Amino acid sequence: MTSIVKPRIVHHGLSRNRLGLTIRDYEGGMSTLCAGCGHDSVTAAIIQALFELAVPPHRVAKMSGIGCSSKTPAYFLGASHSFNAVHGRMPSIATGAAAANRELYLLGVSGDGDSLSIGLGQFAHAVRRNIDMLYIIENNGVYGLTKGQFSASADIGTAAKRGEVNEQPPIDPVQLTMALGGTFVARSFSGDKDQLVPLIKAGMRHEGFAMIDVLSPCVTFNDHEASTKSYQYTREHSHEVMHTDFVPPMPGIRVAYEEGEVVPITMHDGSRLLLRKVSDDYDPHSRGAAIEYIRTHQRKGEIVTGLLFVDESEPDMHGINSTTGMPLNELGFRSLCPGKRRLASLQRRYR
Amino acid sequence: MTSIVKPRIVHHGLSRNRLGLTIRDYEGGMSTLCAGCGHDSVTAAIIQALFELAVPPHRVAKMSGIGCSSKTPAYFLGASHSFNAVHGRMPSIATGAAAANRELYLLGVSGDGDSLSIGLGQFAHAVRRNIDMLYIIENNGVYGLTKGQFSASADIGTAAKRGEVNEQPPIDPVQLTMALGGTFVARSFSGDKDQLVPLIKAGMRHEGFAMIDVLSPCVTFNDHEASTKSYQYTREHSHEVMHTDFVPPMPGIRVAYEEGEVVPITMHDGSRLLLRKVSDDYDPHSRGAAIEYIRTHQRKGEIVTGLLFVDESEPDMHGINSTTGMPLNELGFRSLCPGKRRLASLQRRYR
Amino acid sequence: MPNHAKSRINDFVIKLANVNGTGSASANTLLMKAIFRMGIPVTGKNFFPSNIQGLPTWYEIRVSRNGYLARSGSVDIMVAMNQQTYSQDLDEVSPGGTLIYDSTWPRESVISRPDIAIVGIPLARMCNERFKSARVRILMKNMAYVGALAALVDIELKVIEKLVREMFASKKALIESNMEAIALGYDYANEHFACPLPTRLKRLNKTAGHIMIDGNTAAALGCVYAGATVGAWYPITPSTSLMDAFRAFCEEYRKDANTGERNFCVVQAEDELAAIGIVLGAAWNGARAFTPTSGPGLSLMSEFIGFAYFAEVPAVLFDVQRVGPSTGMPTRTQQGDILAAAYASHGDTRHVVLFPGDPRECFELSVAAFDLADRLQTPVIVLSDLDIGMNDWMCREFEWDPAYRPDRGKVLNPKTVARLRGRFHRYVDPDGDGIAPRTIPGGHPKGSYFVRGSGHNRYGEYTEDSNEYVEVVDRLKRKWATAAKLVPEPAIRRTRKPASWGIVSVGSCNSAVNEAIDRLAAKGIHVNYCRIRAFPFSSKVTRFLDRHDYVFVVEQNRDAQLKSLLMVETTYPADRMHSILSYGGLPMDYRCVVEAIEETYLEGVAA
Amino acid sequence: MPNHAKSRINDFVIKLANVNGTGSASANTLLMKAIFRMGIPVTGKNFFPSNIQGLPTWYEIRVSRNGYLARSGSVDIMVAMNQQTYSQDLDEVSPGGTLIYDSTWPRESVISRPDIAIVGIPLARMCNERFKSARVRILMKNMAYVGALAALVDIELKVIEKLVREMFASKKALIESNMEAIALGYDYANEHFACPLPTRLKRLNKTAGHIMIDGNTAAALGCVYAGATVGAWYPITPSTSLMDAFRAFCEEYRKDANTGERNFCVVQAEDELAAIGIVLGAAWNGARAFTPTSGPGLSLMSEFIGFAYFAEVPAVLFDVQRVGPSTGMPTRTQQGDILAAAYASHGDTRHVVLFPGDPRECFELSVAAFDLADRLQTPVIVLSDLDIGMNDWMCREFEWDPAYRPDRGKVLNPKTVARLRGRFHRYVDPDGDGIAPRTIPGGHPKGSYFVRGSGHNRYGEYTEDSNEYVEVVDRLKRKWATAAKLVPEPAIRRTRKPASWGIVSVGSCNSAVNEAIDRLAAKGIHVNYCRIRAFPFSSKVTRFLDRHDYVFVVEQNRDAQLKSLLMVETTYPADRMHSILSYGGLPMDYRCVVEAIEETYLEGVAA
Ligand SMILES: Cc1ncc(C[n+]2csc(CCOP(=O)(O)OP(=O)(O)O)c2C)c(N)n1
Ligand SMILES: Cc1ncc(C[n+]2csc(CCOP(=O)(O)OP(=O)(O)O)c2C)c(N)n1
Ligand code: SF4
Ligand code: SF4
Ligand SMILES: [Mg+2]
Ligand SMILES: [Mg+2]
Fold it and tell me: Measuring CA to CA, which residue among D207, D378, D383 is closest to residue D292?
């Protein structure tokens, strides 16, 4: 009833990747998000990146929690397995999936609500365990699906953007992941496909926990004048004569800029973000320097984007555990069960 | 049956504070922790600090979660109200308590398990809301009460201290609280009463969330040779003939050192901690500088102690909410209920 | 235009099929309110997707001169504004009904059924011609169909105009353009069709003294009136609007006009575990505190709920039920959390549950919930559902007794504590009703005690002793018996004729059951009705059961949860209870009750 | 020394009162094992505080030539090593019994009772004289009382010595000193008292083919044998030792001796919500995965458990029950989570629950749990308790059928998927048993599907449609009916005489019930016994009920949770069930069963 089947048109002459697949093979169902939602751009970038990487779709497991962002795995990689967990708990599902099959490519998509409020604990511990996966946070500063409450990352934009609420310091997934010892930390903007696609590819390749914080505007509830505020306003100040359920059609925000450049992005609500792309010669191998760099530019009101930190040397969960190379879910029963004879002998201890 | 009533001896000639109370009035029940447990030293410091502050005991609400550390509120301030919450959830109880009565002094005691594993999310959000309270983490790197599993802060000491597990990066409450925008961040050592007592007093006075990370050795399960390892060992390598339930008597670790000094502390397991006390001229008012300072010394293997960062200007939860000055739990019903007439008029909206 | 419809005045269903996010809700509410103001009983049910924009959404308006508010299962007029669902919407129209659609894009071939009337109105075209901005055009299309319906079913234009004026009181410029759009539809319909249709409205005088309100707003109002000062929640559909409304009311009534100071504190928690913790922390400190949530939140809160049961901390929870299990269908209604609420948490726990049957009871029972929580020092769960919580229901105006004062239960104030002879002991039961007096932190030094969920004895001290533990939980059982005497009585409806059959039900089933009883009576089948309003069950519930040979238990879940609770908690024989279940997620349709009972009746007659 | 004791060979209780953290557990286990090796049935129950050092702790050893393992309520020999609890310990000794204490500090005035024998042995003094380090002295005191008991009740010294040699196999130096300490006590007792006492042991041959093991170790072994590869848990008493044992067994059997590579992965989760998530993530990927927890953890997991029910993900949970509600008394036993487990989570959910009655069944039912979880694609909760989980029980040696192969249920392997004609649809039920075949991620492109707890239809697609949702939950109900056919049957014990009364019980009540049945039979009261081993109830359970006029439901909780479940899930009339409840946190004492049934019997005779 409410799921829409996307017409599947076979385009001849589409380019094919190493596996002989076209980009269509990396697509999913039709998006049911609002027109112009940043999350749809991230979906497109994921499709592009995985096509370019030529990962066999069925070797990828997509995972998410609950939220508009967490719905998006339905819109890409239709031939992949997928797990839409309960709210905020995708990291533990991913941990279990990684434990069972270390050869699967794990791709998690979450929201700022899903990861920084209800899911903060699980997120932090997945970072700490260095689960081998790509974890994308589609960060819009709000709870989109429940209609626009501020999330814990609210106020990442300009200082005055959302009135009084900006007195609560936002939780920045990048700084948090750095503080937790994350081994791959990146930030991008949903509309910047040029930056996002390579980052997703790098994150997929990283052996360990790769976190990409993608600023992904919610066109519906970030829209200061037309919606967030008026939504609030209707509720708080006027007599509740009518429900407001109007979502004006909006275009997505696109941006393209060079390494080392700083560009202002105008959001739907008229507020501005200053994005700085790390320059070509930025060295992402020092945690201290990265933290320093992020904080320095933050003081100038700039949000640094790019691959900010990476450490390929840390072992992932299986490295720490010395897990056998074969996926645990493929081990034969004989190699797992100590058998009848051993049972008899070990029971001597209990006499 | 298992709670021990402490003999209450009235010492004449004990010094009295502003309220005419002696230090005995700030004591609680007899501790049931292991002899030598660092937590008992923290208890003593709390008693001393609150005595010196001359806070009326019944104006203090003690709160904790579950763990050896979380038991300690039973051992101080016997005349205060207390709330021993479920595991990891004390921050939310504190938030509610603060909401209901902004004039109560809130004093929370937690453990590294309680705050950094199961309670990480609540802890982080209490920091973010800047709840007006003192929050002490009695940090021993283990789950004491459940018999010595490593906690998420394990391996704060020397690098090789606990074998393979130190591959998982520890979560440092100080750096985490800094990253989350905490407004009062301090670290100390349970045996350093000279430093701890003033820090507790400062934390109690701070208007907002004051976090003190107190390194507090677990004499029973941090004891490499005699217990942690042998406990593990018995379980993992030898036939489980017998239970090991022996806790050898241990003395607590005491230390005294000057501002700016670095001292090595020898733990019960023979490992060493290098503590550096911030010097007199350290300025705890810059978040950036504090992070830099902590990280610089961390690279040298030093754990910085003292008041590392403080910002008195940030509003607490009530400041952000513009809550009325009188505690909400004292407001009269008349000022809360809009009354019969208003009910009639407001219903016109629903016609 | 064919006209198969027989005349049906003030007794029909209009269904509006829209696309989510196009602003149709305002238009639909306007329609419903206009009918209400014409004095005609009406109800509106919203079927919306778990989505923000672009997916199908429906609104069903039932007009009933007899005041029946349940779903009837038939659709007399369909306003099909969503091309995606045309065929489905077409199928749903009852024979003799009418389908209205936007003929800007004619669809005569697709949309045709010989047994109904098809009314095409070029809504988009008219709006595009009249209005400039894309945004305005989308919105005005909705107003245009309101106008068309006004002509077709005879809604008084002046009522609509008054509503539009109220709606846009703060944005006067919009009044005119909206009225213009309404006129477009109105005029077009009048010009092209024989208006009004036989299925139409006629002013009555049956809504005086009534309001149209949703249960979440009503419950929020109850919290305000009960004097709640601390609210904590984590957003979750369908409970979110409860806290939204609480905030809005408090901003209006609880904010100092001069200083801007608020005498309430709402905390948007990081999750439901924190939300209930905040409530307990506040309630421990003597504030009235509450949290609204839905099923998944209730599950997450269950450890803390058990804690509160044992530590005896008052708390008020609203579970606005949605479809379960698991994350469920968040925008559909169900009564699936009855067992989860009654026995939430591990161990021997049981909780007071209140079951409002409509928004008016949401208001009343939310006040009662705070009184009970304070009196019994325990969590009280108000079990509402999406249908009550988010749909506008017609109900009698709320009343307020100015003499009402909160029952704070046994709280010793500092003066009383000071006068105590011995020490204060938290869990001693002086009156034999299982309730031990408590104190509030910060009050008096003698009043302090240690709240713990772990084993404690009657003095509040830590214990691992068998007898001491048993003493405490046995007292809690005594308290439970007290609760059964204090909770709201069931609502009993008796037929005039002698009846040996009864219906037992709860909550939002009420409208369906009431209508079913009338219709059964018309067929000569007479049943009494007991609508349970609280758990534990009061003696009136057990008496009702015992007086009937056979009882139908009507509820909206698969597993007969209310019936299960009756099996466990009463002595009424299970084999004399028969379940009538509806659990597809739509508000209950009265017909399933009629059919089930009639069938049993006919079997009996045949046997 | 007075000697009131009548001769009681191989039938008495020794209770040891110690201080936590002084190493007494090793000595006590040694005692129990020595008795066991003398061929005499024995059991040991540990009553320990929620504390690491310094608080009182007790160990109760029941010696029973008849093989009765329940608590008997009497104490024949008390070893009072804790001055804090002297008076309480003194009171507990049964008339005619003996109290042994450390007379280094004579306490003749405090410790005296005319009806029992007081045996003072200067344990500390002797050990202090013999051993140097403080640490060793503390430990050796324990060994010294072992020696004294050996003399007093006639434990064979060579059995003890053999045990000591095994204990310290890796630390040979310790063997000698321990034996020395034992000799100290032994010799002192022999010199000063008439040894052995009339209450004493005599070699039997009744423990052959048996082992002494705790349920957590046994369950862990079951996990290893069932082929579980992923374990996730958050430490909580009394379940922690289950994962400790699993790890230890895996280190032994599942680690490559050369490479050190492990073919298992244990994750210490950050909390219980994560632990169950990890299990679901692993099980979705086809690994056998489990999590041990206790009540509070079960509460925290409930949202995810409901998710797994609806998304149909296998999972094995062990709930080692402790006293609830809330955080409870973590070191005391109870069966308080029966309802919480059976109906965990909001919405219409119900879960397979297995009830092991002893460690042997912990082993067997944990293997069964994995098979059932895979076959039924749903969470299976093994409901053990502290008594079974942490105490050493004598039970028959475990057996293993080498032909056993895991039942992985309906899993389509990549080849089968490749051969599928149409598309793969996750929730289609081809066999009518309610079970839909699943696939494992990574296998074959055609096998991919979307796991979601939110509404889905039979194809696994998102839906908010009533009928599609109903179709899915109705099938789940069908699956439930299948479950009832697959779960382990109850254990039925019939008396030789005709009996119209039955006992129904679960889990660790078993020893008490069995002993009670014998003792009742001796009084001429004959009852049959059905020990339920699984929920849903199989037809054998209902048949048992139906064949009895009257049924006693024996369980360890306040609220008669098993009885409640029987009321809801069977048609047996509630008024024919009578509860026998024990919920003080101590393992069940057989006498409460005898008394309750005898009383009813006498009432019947009188009436
Ligand atoms: C346990 C639970 N609590 C609350 C909800 C309601 N809920 C659904 S999505 C959401 C927030 C989503 O925010 P975010 O992760 O930022 O996603 P976005 O919609 O902004 O992309 C909430 C609170 C839920 N589904 N489950
Ligand atoms: C929900 C829940 N899970 C697990 C436990 C078991 N538990 C009790 S204390 C504790 C860890 C305590 O560690 P920490 O906070 O570091 O305190 P410490 O004992 O080290 O002072 C755990 C896991 C519990 N009480 N509740
Ligand atoms: S509500 Fe916001 S986040 Fe959700 S789909 Fe719409 S634009 Fe995207
Ligand atoms: S176990 Fe460790 S933390 Fe707990 S009381 Fe003993 S020394 Fe302290
Ligand atoms: Mg968001
Ligand atoms: Mg700790």
Answer: D383
Q: Is the pLDDT of residue A82 over 80?
A: yes
Instruction: State residue A8's pLDDT score.
Output: 55
d(CA A264, CA A271): 10
pLDDT band at B268 (very low <50, low <70, confident <90, very high): low
Q: For residue C492, what are the contacts with CB-CB under 8 A and spacing of at least 6?
A: C528, C529, C530, C531, C540, C544
Question: What domains appear along chain A, each with residue ranges and CATH number?
Answer: 23-318 (3.40.50.970)
Q: Enumerate the residues of chain D whose CB falls inside 8 A of the CB of residue C452.
A: 327
Ligand 4: atom nearest CA of B71 is 5
Instruction: Find the domain containing C560 and state its range.
Output: 491-606
Instruction: Determine what percent of chain A is predicted with pLDDT higher than 90.
Output: 66
| Number of the ligand closest to the Cα of B227 | 4
Q: Do C101 and C149 sit in the same domain of this protein?
A: yes
Q: Are residues C194 and C64 in the same domain?
A: yes
Ligand 3 proximity of A34 Cβ (cutoff 6 Å): yes
- Give the HSE-up count for residue A161: Cα atoms under 13 Å, Cβ half-sphere: 26
Q: Could you tell me the two tokens for D213?
A: 């093991």
Is residue D586 located within the same domain as residue D507? yes
| Residues C54, C183 within the same domain | yes
> Rounded to two decimals, what is the model's pTM?
0.96
Other chains touching A, judged by 3 or more CB pairs under 8 Å: B, C, D
Whether residues D239 and D330 fall in one domain: yes
**pLDDT tens digit string along B288-341?**
889 999 989 988 889 999 999 999 999 999 999 999 999 999 999 999 999 999
Query: What ipTM goes with this model?
Result: 0.96
Radius of gyration of chain C (CA): 27
CA angle (B59, B62, B66) in 5-degree steps: 170
Note whether C63 and C200 are within 8 A (CB): no
Residue of chain D whose Cα is closest to the Cα of C294? D346
- Match 């009436």 to its residue by tokens: D607
Q: Is residue C401 part of a domain?
A: no
Ligand 1 atom closest to A111 (CA): 15
Tell me if D409 is assigned to some domain: no
β-pair partners for C580: C554
Q: Which of C452, C470, C486 is the last residue of a domain?
A: C486
CATH number reported for the structural domain that contains residue C85 in this entry: 3.40.920.10
Q: What is the CATH number of the domain that holds D348?
A: 3.40.50.970
Report yes or no on D2 lying in a domain: no
Composition of chain D by helix, strand, coil, percent to 5: 40, 20, 40
Q: Which residue of B lies nearest to D239 if distances are taken between CA atoms?
A: B146
pLDDT band of A166, cuts 50, 70, 90: very low
Give the span between the Cα atoms of A43 and A21, in whole angstroms.
Answer: 18
Q: How many residues does chain D have?
A: 607
Mean pLDDT for the stretch of residues C82-102 = 95
Nearest to D299 by CA among C179, A110, A260, C307: C307
CATH code for the domain in which residue D525 is found: 3.40.50.920
Looking at the structure of chain C, the number of domains it has is 4
Among D208, D223, D250, residue at a domain's last position = D208
**Do residues C252 and C204 both lie within one domain?**
no
- What is the average pLDDT across B18-24? 96
- A200 CB burial (10 A radius; 0-12, 13-18, 19+): buried
Q: Predicted confidence band at B167 (pLDDT cuts at 50, 70, 90)?
A: low
Tokens read off for D146: 């072992």
DSSP C372-407: HHHHHTSEEEEEEEHHHHHSEEEEEPP---TT----
Residue D15 confidence (pLDDT): 98
Q: What is the pLDDT of residue C606?
A: 64
Q: Is residue D406 part of a domain?
A: no
d(CA B31, CA D53): 11
For position A223, what pLDDT does the model report?
55
